[in-house]
Structure formats: C-alpha cells, structure tokens
Specification:
With 206 residues, this protein is mostly beta strands. It contains two helices and ten strands. The chain has one domain: Beta Barrel (Lipocalin), CATH 2.40.128.
C-alpha cells in the first residue's frame, strides 16, 4: 500500500559480503527481494469524526507486499527492474465502514487493486553498502496510485545483518498530489493533508 511494492524499499536493502550473481546480472551486482515475513505498508491521515471531541489518526495497514530492488556493481539502483508492489484489497483500519468507503470510492480497488513504487535511486546510502550496522538515507521512486504517478522521497532507517535488511521508510504527500478525493461522508467532519505512508520492510539477499 502484488509487489513485484521487483519497492518503498521501505523499501531495498539487505546486503551480504559476497552475494551470488543471478543469471543476467553483472558480476558484483546484487538483488534484494521482499521477505516472506516482516513487511507491512500503512497509511496515516488526520481526521475529525462526528460526535468525537478531538481529531484522531485514521490508520490502515496491509501485509500484501512483494517486489525486488536490484543494485549494480557501482551500488546504484537498476531502475528498470526495481519495483515494490502493494496489494490494496487487504487494506484494513479499525473501522470497516472506512475501509469500505476507501475501497469503493477513494481508491477504487476493484479497478485499481495495486499500488506500486518504481525505485530509482538512493541518496546518502554509504558505499560500499553496509553488511552490518545501521544507516539512514533517502530512497527516490515514482509511486503509482490509480492512474496518477508522482515522484516521492522516502526517509529510510535501515539495519543490515547476515544478508537481511529491516527498517522503515516514510513519505508524505497531499490528496491533490496523489489525484485522490478526500472522503466526504456525514460521519467524518474533516480530513486533513498530508497522507503519510510508512513501509516497515524486510529484504533478503538473493
């Protein structure tokens, strides 16, 4: 928020000391795939509900994430084959009515069942890429929601260990930038920008 998220990431980034090259990869390049566990994508939006005296955050989450990030021998992202895909059908919050509205109206999930992040570059990731320890850096990528694609910058905090990388990647944007209409129902008095997306990721060296 199925990733093929080949991203947000998030995701992106586990690296071993000597990864084996795949068929078709250049020597010294590496490939990092979304792990079978430890991945979750969520949205967070500030809202004011009718009959509630204070604002609260609407939060929805899905674990339906797949994808891969390829890195060449110079430590650069191979943009043509680095993509993270999020299946939206399983997106859930604490209110089924909210989920139903988002599915039918805001995201139109029946017509657009996936969101995807085409990863293009890292900024500030140490070179060579760490095999252990932690790092903070920026991931750049084009996020596609429905028919709108927008460039995004993700703030990443990652931990590297034994061919795995885990951590979080976060970005924000407005409803207008994403081409989405703010929910408008009697039970919701207001919905405020921005939309914040967070990807809790786990990538594995392949």
């Amino acid at each position: 928020m199925k990733v093929r998220f080949t991203l947000l990431i998030a995701a992106s980034f586990g690296i071993t000391a000597a990864p084996l090259p795949l068929v078709g990869q250049q020597a010294g390049s590496s490939s990092w795939v979304v792990g079978s566990t430890g991945n979750a994508a969520q949205y967070r939006v500030r809202e004011q509900l009718a009959g509630v005296a204070f604002e609260n955050d609407a939060v929805g989450i899905t674990n339906d994430i797949t994808g891969e990030i390829q890195i060449d021998a110079d430590g650069r992202v191979v943009a043509a084959t680095s993509r993270i895909t999020v299946g939206l059908a399983g997106l859930e919050s604490d209110k089924p009515r909210r989920d139903g509205y988002l599915a039918r109206r805001t995201l139109e999930i029946a017509q657009y069942p996936e969101a995807s992040l085409a990863v293009s570059a890292f900024e500030g990731l140490p070179q060579p890429i760490p095999t252990t320890g932690t790092a903070r850096f920026v991931l750049l990528g084009d996020l596609t929601l429905k028919e709108r694609t927008l460039p995004t910058r993700w703030e990443v905090a990652a931990t590297f260990e034994d061919g795995h990388v885990t951590g979080t990647a976060t970005t924000s944007f407005t409803f207008d930038e994403a081409g989405l209409d703010k929910p408008s129902v009697m039970a919701v008095l207001s919905v405020k920008d921005p939309i914040t997306l967070e990807y809790r990721f786990h990538f594995v060296s392949r």
